[in-house]
Design a protein that fits this description.
This protein is α+β, with helices and mostly antiparallel strands. The protein has a single domain (19-184), classed as Aminopeptidase (3-Layer(aba) Sandwich), CATH 3.40.630. The protein is built from four helices and seven strands. A four-stranded antiparallel β-sheet has the order 3-2-1-7. Strands 4-6-5 form a three-stranded antiparallel β-sheet, covered by helices on one side. Helix 2 packs across helix 4 (154-163). The chain is globular and about 35 Å long. The two termini are 17 Å apart.
Length: 185
């Protein structure tokens, strides 16, 4: 509940969540692995065993008239500003483009969330359009990266094959640039 129970962390989402709603979300995520072959991955700092948040892929059937896969994350406030969101998002982006062969990824970002906009831009995404999601009072920005925007690298592809060897479980080796911050399970 360190992430879902924190008002500041959940400010740009659906607000603070109850344990029951988090349990339901986790069950839905596990079902999505069965349906889509992807979902969120729990993020742990390598120095400890405590979950600091998640980063992963989420399917949306209709964003501006087309199905989309989003890179999404939430991290504990105590980890903000340390580059974790960028590192995790880079790994998930590479996995999606190189291993899953997803051709297009989006990020749906509240226009006042400057930190997440910076993360999207750092991982090569660009602003494409606004989207008005059901139940929202204002439109969000849609950032996008397509496989042609970010050419696959053979070495990176092999590293990702090793890091993502089991759906829902990612363990980073010390050789990976992301390893100093994350273990994904």
């Amino acid at each position: 509940m360190r992430v879902f129970g924190d008002t500041e962390v959940m400010h740009f989402g659906d607000g603070v969540q109850t344990k029951e709603s988090v349990d339901n979300w986790l069950r839905a995520c596990l079902e999505n692995y069965q349906t889509w072959g992807f979902g969120p991955y729990a993020a742990l700092e390598q120095s400890g065993e405590q979950v600091i948040g998640y980063c992963g892929l989420f399917y949306f059937p209709d964003i501006n008239g087309r199905p989309e896969v989003e890179i999404g994350y939430r991290l504990a406030r105590s980890t903000w500003g340390q580059g974790y969101a960028t590192e995790a998002s880079c790994l998930v982006r590479d996995y999606a483009l190189d291993i899953l062969n997803i051709k297009r990824l989006i990020a749906i970002i509240d226009p006042s969330n400057a930190a997440s906009i910076r993360v999207a831009e750092k991982i090569g995404m660009r602003y494409e359009a606004d989207v008005m999601l059901e139940g929202y009072s204002h439109p969000d920005h849609v950032y996008v990266i397509e496989s042609g925007d970010f050419p696959s690298q053979g070495a990176r592809k092999q590293q990702n094959r090793m890091a993502f060897n089991d759906p829902g479980y990612i363990l980073l080796s010390e050789r990976r640039p992301f390893a100093r911050h994350f273990i994904f399970k």
